[in-house]
Amino acid sequence: GWRSTNWRCYSREKKQWKRKMPPIQVKCSCGEGNCPEWAVIELQGVIEPRPEFENFLPNLEIGQLCRPSSQETYTFTIGYHELTGSRVALKKPLLVLKKVKHSDADSSADSKSSTVELDVVGIIRQKILFKTRPKALITSSKKV
Predict the structure, then answer these.
(1) Would residue 129 count as lying in a domain?
(2) Which end of the chain is less crowded, N or C, counting CB atoms within 10 A of the terminal residue's CB?
(3) Residues 85/129, Cβ–Cβ less than 8 Å
């Protein structure tokens, strides 16, 4: 592990000293207690997009998530497969952060310094866990 001093850290594994990074400012513009709630979807396995969608991954819709109002179970439909899952609270909440760079112009035109700030976008306190194998929505019909 890393052991910290005032201005540098020592790694026992690497047996070397390393300078500490300057602190990064984290701010919450949504107000205390008003951050949007997010959730993580945890799947067992891999989702592989078709090659023609490789360039569109950030906005790719992979399925439909539904929760019947009377139950605490969730269904996630991906193509012809349906997964059933449940909501699980996380042991420790996670923050969803957005990196914001502010460039500051010094007195000389050549040197520019930038400060990095992290803005809180949301908080994650729960995950939706799908731990079973998917159920096929289409079955083959056999003629007798």
Answers:
(1) yes
(2) C
(3) yes
pLDDT in tens, 8-34: 566 666 666 666 666 667 777 777 677
pTM: 0.63
Residues 6+ apart with CB under 8 A from 89: 125, 126
| Residue 83 lies inside a defined structural domain of this protein | yes
Whether 128 is in a domain gets the answer yes
Residue 4 amino acid letter: S
Q: Compute the distance between CA of residue 120 and CA of residue 38 in angstroms, rounded to an integer.
A: 12
d(CA 53, CA 50): 6
Our count of domains for the chain comes to 1
Domain around 96:
62-101+117-135
